[in-house]
Design goal:
The chain is 59% helix and 9% strand. The chain is built from 2 helices and 2 strands; from the N terminus they run αββα.
């Protein structure tokens, strides 16, 4: 009976941890996008074409801790870079 309790507690703790972790990532992502969008409006960021193929691009963040460190990638290459990371 004691063993069982231990595992549930651990699971609960682990769940909370994951939830908080995801929330932090989510907030960082949100802030990065928000800042980047504002910077774009203020003319701080130049809209460029895809670095790889030169097609119409969207913003990509390599590191959400650096909101203004932006890469420009088209939909296809953007998805590719995200897939490669995992
Ligand atoms: Zn591309
Ligand atoms: Zn991206």
């Amino acid at each position: 009976m004691k063993e069982y309790r231990k595992t549930t507690d651990y699971k609960k703790y682990h769940c909370e941890y994951i939830k908080n972790y995801n929330a932090t990532i989510g907030i960082k992502k949100y802030i990065s996008r928000y800042l980047a969008r504002n910077a774009k409006h203020m003319g701080l960021i130049k809209i460029l074409d895809c670095e790889i193929c030169g097609n119409k691009a969207e913003m990509h963040h390599d590191d959400y801790n650096k909101p203004l460190d932006i890469k420009w990638l088209c939909r296809k290459h953007h998805l590719e870079i995200h897939k490669r990371k995992k």
